[in-house]
């Protein structure tokens, strides 16, 4: 389904600033639908600016926005976005567009066998009508609106006047967040002095939960013991303001204050209230859980370092060279896993920037494996991005084994004293992670078969790549000149297999 910005950009000749104005209106207009108990449609002329459409012309219009009320039934079960109508089909819209005035009338609904109310409001931007907002509702013959409905409709009419004057939506207003209060959560209507003129039943309930049980009519929020920073800000700057009011450790009320203007002068405000105590309680639990997880990673890292130290002590007491090598390899593998947990201990969540692992890992290989007589230079190019902890751990062990294999076999004695160069290429395109390890050593022996290799390091690499990472690995001689053709190891891992099981989102971000 096309969005408001797409429709206005493709179907209407509006400047970008006007499109932004309409997007701000659409981003906040759910409260207009709830206040008016009606469907709202947003029309703009097809392929024409306001200067090209005058009184007596017959432009066609396209629906670029639609919202249904949560406080009443809808007249439109179908989606109207992108629907094109003529001036004859919508004469009130055409008059409103041409005259730039609010038009109140009726129209015959195609599915209802009676006329419906149609209030057409010009959407003004920089002294020009760029769209028409229609409030469409079923007739209310024989029914007298109650106090809540009267106050809500009156507030909607004030906002409609502001839309027609170009002062709503506010130029710096952003779309409401998911947790922002709606009309159904509770409404306070304030006069020009900041006193409460009307409080909806849900607003009274929210105040009761905050410990306010007094009669609110004619009172300011500060007289009721409530903070009113948002109200003072909205009154002083004539822009919407939001504030969280904490009432003890267990109650948090979110206030969103929208100033009401008449010809630029402040005449009152609408305050939306929402009890977000449960949301904040869950936020605190998540923060506590996150801190606990980081502490666990920190302790695991410490325990792994302790095991590594104990193995080193044991290795010093051994006389067998083979046993000492085995102990050193075990220590290195444990330190590799500890690197991942150390990084996770400083990160929020269970994902880790792999760049913070690979570079310390390379330094560890340089310090522990490379001989001063045969220096090997390592270079890391690219970035694997943000990886889940289990994937980062397995990949770190795989790369450690590959780098050790390079140092042990790619540069044998007699090859020369100038050492060698190893480059790690990391590429993440959002769907697949690719890793290439390229050296300039002696290359692979004739008849080398990765699957037939019996060394422990290559066995660990094969198992982790195929079983843990569901990836692929190839090893081949490079394109260099003998006796140093080099070796190229290529690995690839699908990222979709590591997506979040609940949200379905791949937690791997390309950096």
Task: Describe this protein's structure.
This protein is of the alpha+beta class and 511 residues long. It folds into 4 domains: 4-165, Beta-Lactamase, CATH 3.30.450; 183-275, PAS domain (Beta-Lactamase, 2-Layer Sandwich); 283-349; 351-511, Heat Shock Protein 90, CATH 3.30.565. The strands form 4 sheets. The chain has a 6-stranded antiparallel sheet, sandwiched between helices. Strands 8-7-11-10-9 form a 5-stranded antiparallel sheet, sandwiched between helices. Helix content is 37%, strand content 25%.
Individual helix count: 12
| Structural class computed from helices and strand pairing | alpha+beta
Sheet with the most strands? 6 strands, antiparallel
What fold name stands as the CATH topology of the largest domain? Beta-Lactamase
- The named CATH superfamily of the largest domain: GAF domain
Q: How much helix is in the residues?
A: 25-40%
Low-confidence stretches: 49-56, 500-511
* Termini gap: 30 Å
- Whole-number tally of structural domains: 4
Radius of gyration: 34 Å
Strand order of the largest sheet: 3-2-1-6-5-4
Q: Got a strand count?
A: 18
What's the CATH C level of the largest domain?
A: Alpha Beta
Give the topology string: H per helix, E per strand: HHHEEEHEEEHEEHHEEEHHEHEEHEEHEE
CATH architecture of the largest domain: 2-Layer Sandwich
Molecular shape: elongated
Strand content: 25-35%
Mean pLDDT: 86
